[in-house]
Structures are given as C-alpha cells and as structure tokens.
What does this fold into?
Amino acid sequence: MPGPDYILDIDGLTPVQAEPPTAGASGSGRPWIAVKWTCCSVYSRIYRHRDGDRYEGRCPKCMKQATARVGPGGTSRRFFEAG
Ligand SMILES: [Zn+2]
It folds into this structure.
C-alpha cells in the first residue's frame, strides 16, 4: 500500500513552484515526478524506486543522476529542477 508522496531529502534537486500540465501519478502506473535538467535544458520524469523510499532518475542527455528520498516532513511537490 503506497504511502504519501512525501519527499524528505533531495540530492541535487530543487523544488520549484511551477506545475507541468502532465505532472502527477497517472492511473495504475508507477508514481513519478517531473524534473527539469538544467544541465541540458530538458525535461523528463523520474520514477519511484520499487523499494518505495525514493525517486531515482538520470538526465536523458548527460546521464547525471538525481535522487529524491521519500519521508514524512518533506514536500509534496512534483516538479523539480536538477543539474
Ligand atoms: Zn544533463
């Protein structure tokens, strides 16, 4: 049973105010957050790890990795910047 999408600790990610029109968990798919990779000026989704305690993803262009840990007291934003 999935817990709330709290994000406690963000390594290399910065929450931003804007919400992309496609953000959010869609139906039965894995939860994801939208990331703008400022290193390459591209957007992508990063998905929740199967352990459920973090989101992990890589920049689609330069493969830079970013991780967002999930926990109480974090932000519920779904749109971040990395890079
Ligand atoms: Zn990049």
